[in-house]
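User: I'm writing a short methods note and want a consistent example. For GTPase Der, I'll paste the sequence; you return only the structure tokens, no commentary, since I'll be parsing the reply automatically.
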Amino acid sequence: MTLPVVAIVGRANVGKSTLFNRLIGERVAIVEDRPGVTRDRIYGKCEWNGRTFHLIDTGGIEMDDRDEIVNLIRVQAELAIDEADVIVFLTNGHEGLTATDRHVAEILRKSRKPIVLGVNKLDHPTHHALAYEFYELGFGDPVAISAEHGAGTGDLLDKVTEQLAPETVDEPDDDAIRIALIGRPNVGKSSLVNALVGESRVMVSDVAGTTRDAVDTPLESDGQSYVLIDTAGLRRRGKVYEEIEKYSVLRALRAIERADVTFVVIDGERGIAEQDKRVAGYALDAGRAIAFLVNKWDAVQKTDKTAHEFEQALRAEFPFMRWAPILFVSALTKQRIHKILPLAREVADMHAMRISTSTLNAVIQDAILSVPPPSDKGRKLRIYYATQVSVKPPTFAVFVNQPELMHFSYERYLENQLRGAFGFEGTPIRLLTRQRS
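Assistant:
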């Protein structure tokens, strides 16, 4: 299921970051009582009335176009508006309706997106009359709120969820394996899609950021249906986004949500970068099956040890994903392209594997006999039994006497034993420690 997107937009210093933190329940956005603190868009998830959606915090939009930083913040906000399904237009009730508010309102009107108008910093019901002035903007009934204290935020969320489109599930084919190709800009994701499909289905360019949005390409191979999801390249946060590019991290994150398998595409010519870890982390956090595609391998000066050395370097940089397979390919020369779809099918099978409770507990008991559970200050961890509670990714509940005695190192040991017994190549495993009632 692809989650809808809600963006909080407004001029500087109206409390957008405070509202963002209040709605997602965490202190993520930087909150400081001066304009221009929030420069990048910040993403989080919010749930209300049974609906879950992405929430975007944006920098304040200002009218002064002579300041370069102000312009960049405005571009970020406009990109967020472009991505959003619903926009929360936040204003400051104590300062009243300003010329900049009217300027922001004109930008929002052009977007033709549903707008929910919030009037912030109205901490007491006696101040709610200050919201009436904002009817002038023409966005319907303004909602008086206090982001700092939480007052009125429930009413605001009610109006937001009313504007969200009905939930839909993106499943063009129930049996299809959905594959997202993710990575930094210009690593060859679109070229790989074209090589797999055998025709130029996705726009390819040497200019970083050519792919504007996620593009679904269905195909079939050896009786198996696939859907390839090409995504806009993920960039380091803080990198300047050009206005003409319309590129977004969030679009790639939404593509990951819709995927069964994610291929992290790495530029073999340029090598491994810090951003590659961030990209892989998005897929890992989402619990997707993962494999590495080292592209442009034809352009690498090689000896008989080059692939082994690159693989060793990759494993060293991604020690938390040693289970993810690595394939060296070239979209240009089609080198090993024919192995990509079979690999996707293999890791998708592992991602959806279900183990019977009896077989699972036989492995767990053998693991306990080989390496007994740890003890702490005379208290000994006792593991009674385990059961698989879900797939995609395989998730196991391990029932114990005292969950706090389960050390992460022993949890990792159990994970390694499960991988040794069942494979689980290309998929994360989740272990949930539960107290037996």
